[in-house]
């Protein structure tokens, strides 16, 4: 049986989901408006579903795997297994109030009307904080609610914060931070473990590669030891002698986040001709 992978049929996660699958070597043969697509040369098919339907389809086993926002799994209280955070579509679920409203702490929400598309998550948050508020459940354009007199506050996803700003709202409480995740149906993890493990292996290799860079540079032989201590290498750096006596080329992998710091230090040690190359896949 083919592995069924659900992704958003449109919306924020669509492009990044397709791009991730392609980087994993899974070429989705889709055309606009299609609900299902096959993957050439691989025993899997893609289901294009509405974002808010994915958790239930995944829990019920209509899909074996899904790429979706963690926020929607939490909101739908779906009994599925989150396997991997995917590092894109980062956002936070926040409570925001009009800038002219007096706000000291979460208790300021007592007795207020809050518009949201995330009633379950908001209800739990309010209960944990002993706040009694009225929920106004709407499915979109939540940020407009205070302006049109529909609510006193809102609870919605925030990414850059520009939608809040444009609507004169101030972010007051961050309920949780979310990003796109790979999640699985719990029984598929047993019945289709080989296929799922293969996809997870590929995704991890792509994610790992995205966090790292391959660098190579020339260094006097007398500096190889001191420069090696600066490099947080996978095992130990590759050292290749240059034709020029007394010099070597040193190759290794470094974390993207440490990049500028390391480059500065190895330059001080005498590194020359530094090349930095992106990595497509990385299997540790
Ligand atoms: P922003 O102006 O970038 O803060 O985005 C806010 C708007 O985009 C809100 O209407 C949110 O509902 C929506 N939004 C932000 N991040 C996400 C996300 N990761 N997934 C789905 N919708 C989002």
Describe this protein with a few key phrases:
284 residues, alpha/beta, D-Maltodextrin-Binding Protein, domain 2, Alpha-Beta Plaits, 3 domains, 5-stranded mixed sheet, 15 strands, globular, binds adenosine monophosphate
Describe it.
This protein folds into 3 domains: 118 residues, Periplasmic binding protein-like II (D-Maltodextrin-Binding Protein, domain 2, 3-Layer(aba) Sandwich); 88 residues, Periplasmic binding protein-like II (D-Maltodextrin-Binding Protein, domain 2), CATH 3.40.190.10; 66 residues, Alpha-Beta Plaits (2-Layer Sandwich), CATH 3.30.70. The chain contains 9 helices and 15 strands. It is 28% helix and 32% strand. The mean pLDDT is 95. The protein has 284 residues and is α/β, with parallel strands linked by helices. It is globular, with a radius of gyration of 25 Å. A 6-stranded mixed beta sheet has the order 2-3-1-4-11-5, sandwiched between helices. The chain has a 5-stranded mixed beta sheet with strand order 8-7-9-6-10. A 4-stranded antiparallel beta sheet has the order 13-14-12-15. The site of adenosine monophosphate has 12 residues, from strand 9 and helix 5. Adenosine monophosphate binds next to strand 9 and helix 5.
